[in-house]
Amino acid sequence: MRNALDDSAAVEEQSPSRVMAPFALGVGSWGTPPGVKLDLRYAPDEAALLDHDVGAMWEAVVRRSAGAGSALASHYAVDDPYGGVRGAPVVSRFFNVGLSAEQVTFGAGVTSLLHALSGLADHGVVMSPVLTHPDLDTWSATRGGRVVPLEGPPLRDQLSLALARVRPTLLHFDRPDFLGQMLDLDELEHLLAVAERAGTIVLIDESAAQYLGPSGSAGRLVNRVGNLIVLRGFTKAYSLGGMRAAYAVASRELASTVRTLVPPLQVSELSLAVALELLRAGDMFAHVRARVCAVKPIARQVLQDAMLSVIATREELPWLGVRDTEQRTSAFLEQRGVFALRPPATGRQPSAGTDVLRLTIPLSDDRIALFSQLLA
Length: 376
Hints:
36% helix; 14% strand; seven-stranded mixed sheet; alpha/beta; three-stranded antiparallel sheet
């Protein structure tokens, strides 16, 4: 497999004519296909395992607002259009790091923030591992930027060498990535220092880091460096994708840049109020992690018994990866009504790094039984 040290892998640029929105965006492949008996692209059974009742928290926010929430809807937040004034104290406690109001910017979901922050590249070079969520790269390429894909997992030394050689305007990656691989905070801090010397902004999408809680978040590093932006949302683990709320936490040196790119007044007052209530609750995912660790070996054994090639992932994350060489595994699963998540098509040339699938493991007894039955 090629990696970030190979010139052909690290410097292959993506032509805007080959990578176009909206067809290459992640959402383009998220619709429900026919014949689904068990959809393992998502986790509808995770919300019941949260340490707090999210539905009850939502209802409590509405009850506290006059007119069953109408007072929130009537409030026009011109004095806090990015949510930072109200959000910074809460996000600071969540990450245990001091943040100013300008460092915290709320948007209408991570998708919206990625769209706005694609402007960070400013027609320069965006570098990202091939299993990074494609939206920012797609928008950057569509607007005339250049995308440098990196094969292989996001390893510190490979990324550092590629940064020093390519010196991109923006390094963008998911933490954890599509297969649940991620740098720890010490490795990440080293990488950020390399990027700062190269004049590179680092944008980390932590949409899927919720399961691990806030203590290991890259958000804890924003005051130690001047080139970091971290995104978080409420879809993964919280199961509140329809709330359309997310937030960016930025180094002080980048806070004003984020505000020049992200439109104000994106998040409804109700969504912002619920988002802050969830963050005040802190790490809500201990029961989710325990359940994942309990049932993941069962799911792994079911896949191995079906003679599928399983890829190791971090144990607390509710996914398993499998090889999908020539899409044979996809065909095998879909014939049985089981649908896994493919890496979104981005217009890149096919590579050994993207011939994988991700299965969100069933967490409820009923879904585990159905999974075992369909693959027996």
